[in-house]
């Protein structure tokens, strides 16, 4: 299961467009934005300006329900809620399988070492007009081994192309790659790192999801795939490298006082260039491995409601399985309203069983592995509300939430320099925290049975009436 197989799969259901001759300098990025806004197909760029044929970019993956179905091996046309639930079950029931070490693989088809290392060989896009440079790492994975616990983390953290053997990185506070890096730096050592650009989306998925500290994501990826991820051992880093990756680098991340460079600005997922240009750590690249005719997987952030990967969908399934793992009863669904991308509006629908249930669900969701980082509004609704129906969610907020009594504020929560609401003063002080609101839009538990009756025909009356007037609805 490699990226090429996924490309063939989405092509077979009309979810791929192949484009020749686009410019890496803003044209690929702008086409990605224009198609991404329409939840459109993935774009495979070849014959990119200034680069040889075969050196390609796949922009976007799992960008809509059809593509997610293909990535997961489900039927392509499963409806939204069915897919969400099936996806949640797949995540919840996964049995981790450690990677299997092999001695060779397509990623070894081309090797650059020492003075031959040249990342400029790849057609790295300049994605957004306000970016401070070209970003090779968007749909990437960084692989690092924690020097304390000796487990291997995988995370998606953006990588700027500084020069032929230097990448710039931004990892938000609290993310595992950052904590691991700091564990090396505290010992006065550089942090060995592998970065991978282009694997099957199911493997990549585990890199963008938040698993608890100490969880080796490659084991989860193997579990999701149903067989171990095949890896070769990196000669320079000793780290696992997926044997069928399109491009991989081995390198090290020196302590920031040894080397840092201006990184950013970058068009970020909240829809702004909020973190600006800052001094950030670099990766010194020692080895580059790549397949013949390599494909960079590019997933540039797009202003919500677009995304480049249907992250609102993916994180909804992930928060849902987190709540299920906590054993909280009555969870009927989880969704992220798209205006807030995958984090700012978390909606949980519940069957209220006891007083305080709604508040428990809200605080659990906002503290769960997937829900803890950089949220803003957590909305709890009753189970007559389909959380994926944004109109119904807003109706519930409008008619079941009394602001004076049903909104709670938490302060000083886990946020990031990407948060556009953080003031210049707070940025200056390095205070990357935000506040959160819990919006209880459930009927009040202790008088829910007396809550005014909803003005909507019963399902029975509707279906009777529909049966009698079928022609009317076939044309609506
Ligand atoms: C396309 C994409 C780009 C991302 N870029 C970054 C990034 O630059 N820095 C960052 O800290 N997190 C980034 N993330 C979010 C992390 O990948 C995500 O929070 C993940 O849980 C991190 O792994 P970890 O929990 O092992 O730290 C990105 C996610 C996606 C989907
Ligand atoms: Mn992790």
Q: What's a concise summary of this model?
A:
This protein is of the alpha+beta class and 476 residues long. The protein has helices spanning 3-12, 27-36, 65-72, 80-93, 176-186, 201-208, 217-225, 311-325, 357-367, 390-400, 403-406, 424-428, 459-468, 470-474; strands at residues 16-20, 42-46, 56-59, 100-101, 110-113, 135-137, 140-145, 152-155, 159-163, 166-169, 191-197, 230-233, 240-242, 247-253, 260-263, 278-290, 295-298, 331-336, 345-350, 377-382, 407-414, 433-441.
List keywords for this structure.
5-stranded mixed beta sheet; binds manganese (II) ion; UbiD C-terminal domain-like; 476 residues; 14 helices; globular; single chain; Pnp Oxidase, Chain A; 22 strands
Describe this structure as you would to a colleague.
With 476 residues, this protein is of the alpha+beta class. The protein is 28% helix and 25% strand. The strands form four sheets. Strands 5, 6, 7, 8, 9, 10, 11, 14, 15 and 16 form a ten-stranded antiparallel β-sheet that branches. A five-stranded mixed β-sheet has the order 18-19-20-22-21. Strands 1-2-3-17 form a four-stranded mixed β-sheet. Strand 19 (345-350), helix 9 and strand 20 (377-382) form a beta-alpha-beta unit. It is globular, with a radius of gyration of 23 Å. The relative contact order is 0.12. The structure holds flavin mononucleotide and manganese (II) ion. Residues 153, 155, 176, 211, 215, 217 line the site of manganese (II) ion.
